[in-house]
Amino acid sequence: MARSRPALPPMVGRGLGRASAAARSFGRSWGRVLAPVLATVRPAGWVALVVAVAGLVAGLLLSWREPALVGAAAAVILLLALPWLLGRTRVQVELLLDPQRVVAGNSVAASLRVANPTSGRLRAVLLDLPVGQAIHRYDLPGLAAGARHEETFTIRTERRGVIPVGPATARRADPLGLLSRDATWGGVTEVLVRPAMVPLESLGAGLLRDLEGVTSDAVSESDLAFHALREYVPGDDLRHVHWRSSAKLAGAGMQQLLVRQYLDTRRSHATFVVEDRPDAWGSPDDFETALAAVASLVGRAMLDEIAASLVVGERASNTGAAQSALDTVCRAVPGRTGLVTAAAAAAAAVPETSLLFLLGGTGTDFATFQRAAVSFAPDVRRLAIRVDPGQPSRAAEVGDLTVLHLAELGDLPGVLRWSLG
Amino acid sequence: MSATVVPRGREAVDAAFLVVLSVLALLGLEPTFTGHQYLLVGVVGLLLGLACVRLAHWRRWPRVSALLLALAVFVVLGPVLCLREDGGPLPTGGALHGLLDAVLLGWKELLTTLPPVDGSGHLLVLPWLVGIAVGLLGGLLLGIGGGGADRIPEAARLGLPLLPPVLLLAAVILLGVRHPASLLLQGIAFAVIALVWITLRGLERTSVRSSRRVGTLRRTAFGVATLAVAAVVAVPASAALTDDTHRDVLRQRVVPPVDVAQFGSPLSAFRRYTQGRAGDPLNLHDTTLMVVKGAPTGTRIRFATLDRYDGTVWAASEEPARALPGVHANAFLHVSDVIDNPVRGRTVHARVTLGKGWSSVWLPTVGALQRLDFTGADRRRLAGDVRYDLETSTGLVPSGLEPGDSYDLTAVEPSDLLTRDETPGPDLDPSVQTASEFLQDVANSMSGDATDPMDRMLTIAAYLKAHGRYSDGVKADQRIYHAGHYQKRLGQDFLEQDLIVGNDEQYAAAMALLANQVGVPARVVLGAELPATGVVTGADVHAWVEVQVADGSWRTLPTDSFMSHRSPAELPPQRTENSRGSEAPPPAPVPPPSTLGGQADQGLKGKKDVDTDEGGGGLHVPRWVLIAVAIVALPVVLVLLFAALVLGAKAWRRARRRAAERPSARIVGAWRELVDHARDLGRAVAVDGPTRREQAVQLDHDEAAGLARVADSHVFGPLPPGEDAAASYWTAVDGARRDLSAGATRWQRVRAALSLVTFWRRWRHEPEPVLPTPRNIPEQELVPPG
After folding, report:
1. Whose CA, among A27, B306, B675, B730, lies 20 to 30 Å from B760?
2. What DSSP assignment string belongs to B70-135?
3. What is the mean pLDDT of residues B676-694?
4. What CATH number does the domain containing A327 carry?
């Protein structure tokens, strides 16, 4: 296209370029001026503005009295809102939350300290603090220079999740909330709400064949835990020849070298993979039950000093740290990933897995569990937990996959003990 | 969030605001309907519309189902609520027809009926429809239907629910009358409640946690004060910004569907009322035209107002001065028994019974009509057909009035006194003025040295009275004074004669033209003055002139002020007159149609009936609607037909495959069904060539491989499959098909349902061989994807 256009004389081209640059910078400077003005208009203010313009235009064009009246009223309240914007809004806000991690049902104590950092008196302003979906509004009193004001409140937690708190916004706004000049302070602090957990017996009691997470059954050529001696075969590392025993044999007349054999030590690592597609769960509550089960297991694993990793949909924690896994429990949301895909991702991200928990709901069948488990090495111990409130809790062992049918969270200790005991 | 049937908390508050605002807007129809049934029906519709959305949400049905529910409610409850009189309360065929009729044509009927319209009849369908629509839309926009409104900007989330009541208000104004129904309700209350709603919606996530209550109280108080100030200021501001007289409403723009011109000029037949020759059967001089009881003696009874002169006759016009700004549209509109006619004056109640001399389309009325009740046997037809023109105060029954018809009327008689110091009104009709130009010289000479228009007109009137002579042209020597008020009769043969001779017809016609010529808007009225007996005969009929004064009202210029009753007989006609008179009397250029002529009326009535049948009184709109409907409907019908054909063909194919004779054929059919479904969805699966297992790979579906294996094992296995195996295989395939569909978007699914790709390479190989034969060894043939 550009080729077919008649070429402009260079002077003109340069002039045009300069003009467009000027226009751009003009636009930018206007943007700089307008942006703060537009920023003062709150959503309700925009609506009022639209109502005012539409009403007045309809009234003028069609000589309709009623829309004109509605539009005029909207215009008047917008005008009356302007004087409220005058004044300064600089405040310093400090937000303290204790504790930041909490089990659902408990409360978080929060305190909000507002200070006037300026040398003048601060007129009363509003302070909005978003807490989760809600916005807490505080009417701050006028503050003298350097004065402080403290508001305390508690955040009640009801269910698992993350409650973002902040940032605090000091507003100088009209009474109807159409316009406001805002000063935002601080960032978002998160309160992580964990699901209610049930106490479990030690996973080590029967669940793990590799006690204390030290050695596995696998024989290794080079490790710490001594297993046995065997005869030397060509290719063995000479470092592992047990000289003393070899010498004894030689003394007995057998020209044979003996080498040491070891047991592979492995750090026990429990990996949890949770189905995240909503249609695989009988109800959203089942998903919550599963996450509560995960949290309980992670809590127990922490006591047993077993590392724990968790993959729920697109959220994963693979550090092995129980705290991190529990945080991931808090952040888990339904998605579209699916158990099989998530398990494959977990197998790649946590290769040291020794114990695998797969969690699914009524929509997850045995085959899906199997397909998910395939991603892991065969020596990984697998357990599937299927949350189905409609059936009594029970455990079934099919091949190398143990499936625990869990009706409710309270049944978890029993089912675990019964299936593994 | 599990929904309850009845909304709670925030949702209930929003629904309440929506209902209140919509009711306020609906109240704008108050002057349009008589009674309050319109409000009841509208509110019921509103609530049911909301309930439909709620029910669909509660049952977790898709949102479209709310629309279908609302449609069902509209159809099922519509007849009970709106059509109790026409069509019956049950949703029978007739009632549905009435419902559809009212939806399609009711708007036109509403607009062409002079308000208020009958508030218990079939026009209630309109508020019913509007109520349901607003409830439905409001519910959906509010998201009490569970709409996920997270992606749209906050301002839109706040403002969108305001849209339905605002649209309703606009619609009510458009369909309403020419003055605001109530500034308090649709203006102040609507504005304040809407603004409060926006404010509350803006704050709904905010909870005040402050320990200090004083701030909250103060803000609330200031908020209320702001709204109060806004309401108080907005009233005068809106008055200053808008002009109610120019209020643009649909009623004003609708072309009235009655063509008054066809009824001709009743003034042309004036001589039927005058002293006629003995034995003339058409003469009505001594015949009773009507009996009027209850009105005071001397009341002017108006037959017709004639406001347009075309050079031949004065006639009633449809739209005399539409081109002029500020003029009320002049139109004969349908009326119910109550007429919104704001005029001050003396109230008159009268009962009119038409006598045997009256057989015409014109409805004799008094003053400015307020209420009209037909009482005779024919009252249903008359009440349905009667039209009234506010501007000329003229009533009309296009299908005709008969002797014996009677009616009660309530009217207000405005003051119609004309004084010399009035200034002429603004609505001078340019066409009449042009038509009166042939009288310019006469007007100039007759008005003498008067300069002010009103002055000149009254001077002319006085001149006519002083110099004019009266003759009905009956006596032998007066036959030269013939009837008519065409230009020549009024000019050469009347005003320009030395001796001006004529009767009411010529005098009133000439007077009105002269008045227009000197700049005073004037029109001719044919009517009667009520005698003391209350029995109006032809002898009481007169024609007088009405002139408009500055405030827009029309004042009477009585016949006696411009016509004398002296007979010309004392003076023998002058020679010039004689010679001119001895010529054959020139026939009227166009024989003016007489309204009172029986035969003409019969023909007219027949014609009118045809017109009425055609579209409920409308002439243009129904045809227009039909064409529009045809243009819209034809492609829709074609598309639907196509869709039905495709879906039907696929269903037939599926049924045939499922019902194949041998179970193994059924299993093969099920597999083909799965492959076809995948191809419909746009997957590139080859047919005719690859084995089922190869196809399964191309199918790209978790269960496909398993299904292919099962099919193979059934078809090639050692034992023929049983009925159960085929049935369970079909179930599995159905599940897989649903799965495939679930992965597609809605649009893809629709396209798949209508896709023709699976018919493409099928014909050759059906019926499908069940066992491999040499003929069936595949040649590799791939169907291009898509």
Report:
1. B730
2. HHHHHHHHHHHHH-TTTT-SS--HHHHHHHHHHHHHHHHHHHHEESSBPTTSGGGHHHHHHHHHHH
3. 82
4. 3.40.50.410
